[in-house]
Amino acid sequence: xxxxxxxxxxxxxxxxxxxxxxxxxxxxxxxxxxxxxxxxxxxxxxxxxxxxxxxxxxxxxxxxxxxxxxxxxxxxxxxxxxxxxxxxxxxxxxxxxxxxxxxxxxxxxxxxxxxxxxxxxxxxxxxxxxxxxxxxxxxxxxxxxxxxxxxxxxxxxxxxxxxxxxxxxxxxxxxxxxxxxxxxxxxxxxxxxxxxxxxxxxxxxxxxxxxxx
Length: 213
Prior knowledge:
Elements: E1 28-34, H1 37-52, E2 57-60, H2 68-72, E3 81-84, H3 89-95, E4 104-108, H4 118-131, E5 134-140, H5 149-157, E6 165-174, E7 177-186, E8 196-201, H6 203-210
Parallel strand pairs: 1-5, 1-6, 2-3, 2-4, 4-5
Antiparallel strand pairs: 6-7, 7-8
């Protein structure tokens, strides 16, 4: 039943790594697209590690999650990291019933789940609101039209207007130095100044996850 309430004070939220233009607070729904494998690995591992510093983190989706060994390189305890495989929209929504309120939930390869619809996204929005979850839907896209980013978010995530944040991640390198190039298409009202293009040095982060000296 609908009800009115006083909105909570904004918490600091989860920041995947230093320099990242946005945080992911409780009670939010965000969508992130990585256009290359390195960007995907950096985002998944760093965001889960950041969440583990303050509570529980869950990885849900088809396919493998970042390993505890990889996450341990971020100097975090992995006892509060849980993962589960789901293959359909219904299984995803059911799995969220077992997530502890206030936790971070990263859903990998969301557009590949069977039966995804506008109703699925509405259901995720409801769960994020009612249980103060931090839900981030992620996709490591092999095909992504950079000339029509709004259209791509509509294609992949059905109702982009329901999301608090929409981001595209890409990595670039030159002579052993790496940068994460980020397009922020949508941001919460408090962070609207972050909308636009960002380029962040991530060389040390790349060395951390690859084990390079």
